[in-house]
Design a protein that fits this description.
mainly alpha; 69% helix; 179 residues
């Protein structure tokens, strides 16, 4: 004859095993969800950085003096010094022009090639991710070379200081940039 209380003796073990299986399956689902969110946030941050580098490269390219405007620029310098007026390049773009040296032009075009959205893959593969990381590192190095050639600082120091300082807000994907 079977003991009628046998099921009560094993009750704790049975509920422990049920709880363990449910907790394990819930944990797996939750960790997959968190991993996807983390991946999306990191990918978004990388492409924001690539976009900032692309914008800086395009601004530098726009600041180069065009070969056809070099002769005009020297004449305009004389006129502007006489009339205290800005050169046409400054009025057109609102930016100070850079000297159009072959070395500077080559570095700016190389930088543009590194951060051109058509030149890199947006797939989520290990090779594509490492390619993006390499492009970001090389683009920062190229930007530093351009800074030294022009004698200007193109980096965004306040953003670096803000990123290194502890933040009181939560880091969300929507909280980026200087807004």
């Amino acid at each position: 004859m079977a003991d009628p209380f046998e099921s009560l003796f094993n009750l704790e073990d049975r509920y422990y095993n049920i709880g363990y299986r449910r907790g394990r399956s819930d944990g797996l689902r939750q960790s997959q969800l968190e991993a996807r969110v983390f991946g999306i946030e990191k990918g978004f941050q990388k492409f924001v950085e690539m976009g900032e580098l692309l914008a800086k490269a395009r601004i530098l390219e726009a600041r180069l003096l065009k070969p056809s405007t070099r002769a005009m620029a020297s004449k305009d310098e004389e006129i502007s010094s006489q009339h205290n007026a800005a050169r046409p390049d400054e009025q057109e773009h609102g930016l100070l022009p850079l000297p159009d040296t072959p070395q500077l032009r080559k570095h700016i075009h190389t930088l543009l090639g590194m951060v051109d959205p058509a030149a890199y893959s947006t797939e989520n593969t290990p090779d594509a991710v490492s390619d993006i990381d390499d492009r970001i590192k090389k683009a920062h190095a190229k930007l530093k070379i351009i800074e030294r050639l022009t004698g200007e600082d193109c980096t965004d120091e306040p953003q670096k200081k803000r990123a290194s300082a502890p933040s009181k807000q939560t880091d969300n994907m929507e909280d980026f940039g200087r807004i």
